[in-house]
Amino acid sequence: MDPAIFRILEAKRYGRTLGRDDIRAAVAGAAGGEWGDAELGAFLMAVAIRGLEAGETRELTLAMLESGERWHLGREFPGLGDKHSTGGVGDKVSLVLAPLMAACGRPVVMLTGRGLGHTAGTADKLEAIPGVVMEFDRDLCRRALEETGLAIGMATGEIAPADRRLYALRDRTATVASLPLMTGSILSKKLATGAAAIVFDVKTGSGAFLPEPERGEELARLMVDTCESLGCRARALITDMSQPLGRWVGHAAEVREALDCLEGRGPADLMEVTYALCEELSELSGGRLTRADLERAIGSGAARERFERWALVQGADPAWMKAPKLGTAPHEAVIAAPRAGRLAAVDTRRLGELLAGAGGGRTKPDDAIDFGVSLLVERKLGDEVDAGDALARLYLRREDAALVKAFEACFEVGDEAAAAVLIRGRIAA
Hints:
By secondary structure, this protein is α/β, with parallel strands linked by helices. It has helices at residues 3-13, 20-32, 37-50, 54-65, 93-103, 122-126, 138-148, 161-172, 179-190, 213-229, 251-262, 268-285, 291-299, 302-313, 318-322, 348-360, 401-408, and strands at 81-85, 108-111, 150-153, 197-204, 233-240, 248-249, 331-336, 341-346, 374-377, 384-385, 390-396, 411-414, 423-428. The protein has a four-stranded mixed β-sheet with strand order 1-4-5-13, sandwiched between helices. Strands 6-9-11-7 form a four-stranded antiparallel β-sheet, sandwiched between helices.
């Protein structure tokens, strides 16, 4: 082993603070191949166990960012904003927020990704629209922003190449949940577009990647502070994921529900989170939009029209866009309340895993997605129910009694239950 690599690994193993050059050596070794998987795996494990100080996290993020292309789009689109969610079940806020902000004159760019496990990716959901192109380079991203005020897609391989290798190894070395590594991975891609401001939606609860509120708040603080230290304004909201957000879970169904939101028919919980994130992002990027401003953009049809214009620029089939067809799988099964009481708990992560296993997501990176497999939520936490009332409706490609039983086990009815608190906290610089 190269003595310099050994020295870096040994230093972090003993919990010492790494200097800028040490961190850049590890990131360059990941991007260029000079560090092998064994050395990088050891580095990731040492970071996961020993942690990184705020300055180390900043240097890691910056080195990963500078390992690839930077688009600097904020120079051409003043006030350019971005939004990132840590992921959840039924979380289609991005599909509503981006066209809504654009309709209010605030440009938005989002580099997004694909889903795996219990959460679905924004790119996967949007691919329920025939023809839409999610893989974009700077030219397509810029054209979408210029013509519509929003751009949503997956980054080219030239953005943060170090992260691709490190992320794949994190999955193999059980270091995905390290907060400094999560921060570096997320921000190295988000900051590459050159957005002037980012708002983070950090989920907590049973369906969140970090269920514990304290861990969610720690990640939110780390991302906000790291962003600000690198010259990008940032805030975060801590939001609830103890149950699915909105009424629908499933790729085509979530796109359909997003369109409902843009036409003024969105469920209250989904719209509350969306409006709150819009207000925060607008204040960071050019002056706070009021709730009335946002509601006017929806009521006038401007937000719905902006979504359609964006989809067409990114390749959507024009004929389909005139009459969207976003159906569900054919076999309906009712998840019924086993007794009278109140809906007391939902194992939201397990719901997402079961949907993915039924074809409505991915359990392996190369899995195909059945866009029609979906779940309709009929009751929310705290709602009163009678025995036999529908808690949810499941739409599958084929009948499967055992799978329906597994879904039923995700819902708990008790004598007492409280409604969820949608927005649990706010983190500012």
